[in-house]
Design the sequence.
């Protein structure tokens, strides 16, 4: 167990996962009253998801963060119907939620090529509008980035999440013996011998009180929302942030993590979860593991020993519990196999649900045909 409080003050880094933009559709073109001509519609502002774009690159390329589409052409003798204004296309990263200024989600862009109409152009002037054009839609929107990974690593600081990522993938995250080494999410790919790949997101450590914005707060948990599965990583020797805070055993850290996930969003607890118990090379590890397994088998028998506010309403059900050591390599191959199995089972279940839905649709359309 290692202490580490000094690094708490370190900054969030220059990773950006939220960007505020001004978007405005183009104004319509003027109508032509004498000949009844109609001005062109103003251009639209579109967000288009594209690989290899980051919010940082958008901010650097467009420091004013204003996106205005072209004005529609005026109606003229040569062209009574004015041409539409030029659309403004903004390329954004994959995994973006588009939010209004009031926080309401108005769109999502997940796959390359997904499009979202951010601001519609105004209508051109015509007989109906007394030949006066309309202005385009204007608004402030927020681009909110969530990583799309198969597995999200969730744990207290210093548990060895980054060490694990570096062990199972080619990623080179920073690893150090203090809390909050990781200050921005990192992605790594587990490559299996048959070329199967699974994407893992290493996230900054979570501490108790994260929901009240302690430590790095909850802001990173939003990335977990889109990961298919959770992998909790705990230090078998427990955790203590500083001399001023209480020591927590591995069992307590698991409950506290569950509680923080629950306080952030209860649905997170419905995701399939695995538990990796790390640092099994430490001298006290075997005894601690025996104790922990007893506690995990019958958590209810041990909850009365804890402070009430630490106890989550629901418990996480782990599909597998794997003792590991990123230092000696113990359990790493087994963990990789469990991750793969769990992802495959999940995909199979999704397929099954899809097949059932299709079958139901087929049956209902057949019934309808028969009734005719
Ligand atoms: N003994 C032992 N130490 C480990 C093991 N895995 C990681 N460590 C050490 O634990 C410390 C923290 O490791 P990190 O991988 O940086 O931990 P983290 O969970 O990413 O921490 P944060 O980024 O702060 O949340 C480092 O000093 C590692 O060398 C292990 O299996 N055994
Ligand atoms: Mg880390």
Sequence:
């Amino acid at each position: 167990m290692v202490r580490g409080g000094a690094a708490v003050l370190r900054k969030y880094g220059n990773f950006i996962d939220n960007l505020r933009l001004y978007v405005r559709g183009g104004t319509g073109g003027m109508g032509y009253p004498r000949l009844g001509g109609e001005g062109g519609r103003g251009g639209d502002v579109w967000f288009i998801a594209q690989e290899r774009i980051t919010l940082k690159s958008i901010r650097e390329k467009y420091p004013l963060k204003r996106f205005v589409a072209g004005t529609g052409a005026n109606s003229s003798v040569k062209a009574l119907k004015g041409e539409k204004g030029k659309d403004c296309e903004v390329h954004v990263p994959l995994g973006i939620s588009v939010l209004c200024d009031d926080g309401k989600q108005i769109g999502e862009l997940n796959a390359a090529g997904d499009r979202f109409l951010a601001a519609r152009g105004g209508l051109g002037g015509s007989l109906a509008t007394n030949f006066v054009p309309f202005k385009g839609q204007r608004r402030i929107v927020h681009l909110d980035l969530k990583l799309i990974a198969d597995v999200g690593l969730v744990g207290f600081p210093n548990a060895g999440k980054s060490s694990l990522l570096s062990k199972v993938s080619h990623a080179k995250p920073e690893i150090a013996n203090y809390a909050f080494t990781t200050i921005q999410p990192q992605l790594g790919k587990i490559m299996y011998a048959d070329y199967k790949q699974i994407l893992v997101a290493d996230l900054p450590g979570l501490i108790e009180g994260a929901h009240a914005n302690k430590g790095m707060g909850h802001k990173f948990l939003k990335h977990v929302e889109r990961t298919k599965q959770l992998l909790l990583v705990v230090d078998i020797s427990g955790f203590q942030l500083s001399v001023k805070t209480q020591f927590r055993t591995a069992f307590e850290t698991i409950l506290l993590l569950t509680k923080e996930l629950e306080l952030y969003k209860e649905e997170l607890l419905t995701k399939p979860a695995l538990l990796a118990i790390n640092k099994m090379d430490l001298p006290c590890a075997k005894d601690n593991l025996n104790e922990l397994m007893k506690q995990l088998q019958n958590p209810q028998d041990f909850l009365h020993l804890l402070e009430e506010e630490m106890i989550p309403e629901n418990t996480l059900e782990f599909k597998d519990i794997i003792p590991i050591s990123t230092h000696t390599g113990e359990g790493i191959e087994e963990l990789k196999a469990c991750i793969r199995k769990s992802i495959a089972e999940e995909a199979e279940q999704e397929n099954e649900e899809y097949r059932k839905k299709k079958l139901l649709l087929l049956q209902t359309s057949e019934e309808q045909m028969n009734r005719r």
In short: The chain is about 25% helix and 20% strand. The radius of gyration is 27 Å. The pocket of magnesium ion (ligand 2) is lined by residues 161-162, 173, 181-182, 202 (CB under 6 Å). Confidence is low (pLDDT under 50) at residues 1-13.
